[in-house]
Design goal:
Length: 245
């Protein structure tokens, strides 16, 4: 799978009178993990929603490689290879595990590969093999899964769209420590195995910086720091001021 660069330039976006993103720029190199950190209300979710076309930008640019996705509707952004796992994961509890996975395969990218029914079924089966806890319960409603398993299901579903860029909004939120480690490990593997370019929003700054290449800190809709993950983790003043540890 080819890797892509994601670049966001001077992005502004908001809701009515609220300007949630003021002037946000970042570049995520191909096959890297960029963690977006910041306090509640900093604009992290709005950044992901604007990249994926759910919120219309008021200014600025969103590019995947050389493709300009600024202001394009979510289905165009998805087709360009960007998958978004929203805050609260977006798994549909009433559908079975397999039905949730099939939803992911419905929107997969047109990349010249076979997109027929049999190919999609094979991709769902492969996801069930990769995640045995999901595979074992593929015919059960997603409601029976634990929080950690639902998060894995949400990520597995996003992967079925065969993305090049993966947007993850607080995948560790509300999970037990063991599940948090499992999710972080998976994210790290995805970058290494599939060359995915990952934009990871996290409140768990310490855990996310440990697996990330780069960190971007947002405060009140602006970028207050961008550096490689190790440098941010070592910056005691910045950690105390913006990251709460
Ligand atoms: N649908 C909405 N309508 C109006 N204002 C909103 C909406 N969603 C977010 N906001 C506001 O936009 C700002 C940024 O919110 P956003 O959800 O992007 O922050 P966040 O960094 O993801 O926060 P959290 O850590 O709590 O998830 C906040 O001031 C928030 O109140
Ligand atoms: Mg948020």
């Amino acid at each position: 799978m080819s890797s892509a660069a994601l670049s966001v330039g001077s992005l502004a976006a908001g809701y009515g009178g609220v300007l949630a993103l003021k002037d946000v720029s970042l570049t995520a190199a191909p096959a890297t993990i960029t963690v977006v950190l910041g306090a509640n209300g900093a604009g992290k979710t709005t950044l992901l929603r604007t990249v994926s076309g759910l919120v219309r930008p008021r200014a600025g640019r969103v590019l995947v490689d050389d493709t300009d996705l600024t202001g394009r509707p979510p289905e165009d952004v998805a087709r360009a290879g960007v998958a978004h796992v929203p805050e609260g994961h977006g798994v549909i509890a009433e559908l079975t595990v397999e039905e949730n996975l099939r939803l992911g395969a419905m929107s997969w990218r047109r990349d010249g590969r076979n997109t027929g029914r049999a190919a999609r079924a094979a991709a769902v089966a492969a996801a069930c093999d990769r995640f045995p806890n999901l595979g074992r319960r593929r015919h059960k409603p997603a409601a029976v899964l634990s929080g950690g398993e639902r998060q894995l299901l949400a990520i597995a579903r996003a992967l079925l769209a065969r993305p090049r860029v993966l947007l993850l909004d607080e995948p560790s939120l509300g999970l037990a420590p063991r599940a948090v480690r499992q999710v972080m490990e998976l994210i790290s593997q995805l970058r290494a195995e599939s060359g995915l370019t990952i934009l990871l929003v996290e409140q768990n700054a310490r855990g996310a910086l440990a697996i990330a290449d780069q960190g971007v800190v947002l405060s009140l809709g602006t970028v207050v720091a961008t550096a490689d993950a190790g440098t941010l983790a070592a910056d005691v003043a910045l950690r105390h001021h913006y990251l709460g540890y």
